[in-house]
Amino acid sequence: MPVVYYFASVSSSLVTKKNQERITSVLTSKKIPFKAVDITANSEDKDLMRKIAGDPSALPPQLCNGDTYCGDYDAFEQAVEEERLEEFLKL
Fold first, then answer.
1. For 3-88, CATH number?
2. What is the spatial distance between Cα 43 and Cα 39, in angstroms, rounded to a whole number?
3. Its GO CC terms (predicted)?
4. What's the pTM value of the predicted model, to 2 decimals?
5. Mind listing the pLDDT tens digit for each residue in 45-55?
């Protein structure tokens, strides 16, 4: 099951955009295959992201492995800094 990365292509938040670019950059540079899902294109994707995250108000970016929730941007960044990204992504 691939890593699924939920993001928003339309966001007024510069911080959100930078965080999303960072996730894409790290996953690509480490050659970790992932499926990017734009929650602004389909409300069902947003609902699924929130269900998997267990938070009805969760905002992108969020990461999961199949239906297993991995975490949000802060948890991702912490895993990168601690060099435990594969563990975080449950690979």
1. 3.40.30.10
2. 6
3. cytoplasm
4. 0.93
5. 999 999 999 99
